[in-house]
Amino acid sequence: MTDTSQGEPSTQRSLPPWWAVLLVALAIAGLAFAIGRFSTFGSAASVPGTDSAEAGFARDMQIHHAQAIEMSMTIYRKTQDENVRMLSHDIATAQSAQRGEFYDWLVKWGLPQGGGRLMAWMDAADTGHDHGGTAEDPASDEELMASMGMASTDELAQLDAATGTEADCLYLGLMIRHHEGALPMAEALLDLGSEPRALQVADGIIATQSAEIDLMQSLRAGLACEG
User: Fold this and answer.
1) How buried is 88 (Cβ within 10 angstroms: 0-12 exposed, 13-18 middle, 19+ buried)?
2) In terms of DSSP H, where are the helices of 109-152?
3) What are the tens digits of pLDDT across the range 193-211?
């Protein structure tokens, strides 16, 4: 990190108003996580099966969160913008904890960590989103990941190579799209699921990531990002 205390003007800006909204959302989601993380699921008779929305959500969101963590740690290590640094740290920390919980759900339910086509569990959900082709013309894994808002291999390489404001803008743009891809998944779980803790987490994801999208749009405007 560059030392700006010796005669160089600081590049740190005051936090935008959306930080207050985000902090409230994160506090609520964190409290829900702390309460629910150590609670037990329903009775054995109501444990979700391997084809359930809860199991599909837990599997797909582990993949989705893994990329968010990767991108956030990439920008955290090199950004000089304190707002971007704070945001990337919060995203990496929160999603690492959630990813661990999703893994734990499947262990508790006695289900495999993988299985089935990405987003296949969403096909019956009333979210207004296409979940990946048709039975006659199924989508490829790359197309499915793109529909989840995930970055391509080339985009990840661009983020890794970029520096300065270019890197910050690229990260924010990719992460906005990434979050926008998570919202339909959480909405589908609310539409199809029944496990109380899983529904609680889906609600928290919608609240937190919606607030983070607004914040990231504000940060992009402050950085004068193009596109």
Assistant:
1) buried
2) 141-147
3) 999 999 999 999 999 999 9
